């Protein structure tokens, strides 16, 4: 596996993320590869057919700031420079693939929960990335 030189690690800050981060660190060291980090804040926008007053709680900005802080902490712990961190908004599948393409990564590492049935039917980030990635994808099984 020593041919990997630029790894994109997708993190979601779940409890299982540490397992995926550990695997990525091991592989990067083994391959002497650099690591870029990406986290995608997914928004669910709903349209209302009636006038509804929603107070301005600045939720979007708060979510982004929390994600930015967590991404900075992971990058700091892994020794990843600030120029190698990507905080995106939108569809995780699409944004991870887009960043990997733009940054010319040769491996994407993403956690996988091994969903079955309805969970698989609804689609997972790992599955979406696997089918659209411009490079190899390592789906790390995370403990349940």
From TrEMBL:
Subcellular location: Cytoplasm
Pfam families named in the record: Usp (PF00582)
Coiled coil residues, start to end: none
Keyword Cytoplasm carried by entry: yes
Alphabetized UniProt keyword annotations: Cytoplasm
Domain UspA: 4-141
Name of the protein in its database record: Universal stress protein
């Amino acid at each position: 596996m020593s041919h990997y030189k630029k790894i994109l690690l997708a993190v979601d800050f779940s409890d299982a993320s540490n397992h995926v981060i550990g695997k990525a660190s091991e592989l990067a060291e083994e391959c002497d590869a650099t690591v870029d980090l990406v986290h995608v804040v997914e928004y669910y926008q709903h349209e209302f057919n009636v006038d509804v007053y929603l107070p301005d709680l600045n939720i979007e900005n708060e979510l982004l700031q929390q994600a930015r802080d967590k991404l900075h902490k992971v990058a700091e712990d892994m020794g990843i420079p600030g120029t190698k961190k990507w905080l995106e908004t939108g569809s995780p599948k699409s944004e991870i693939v887009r960043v990997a393409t733009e940054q010319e990564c040769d491996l994407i590492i993403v956690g996988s929960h091994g969903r079955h049935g309805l969970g698989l039917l609804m689609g997972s980030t790992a599955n979406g990335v696997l089918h659209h990635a411009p490079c190899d994808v390592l789906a790390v099984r995370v403990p349940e």
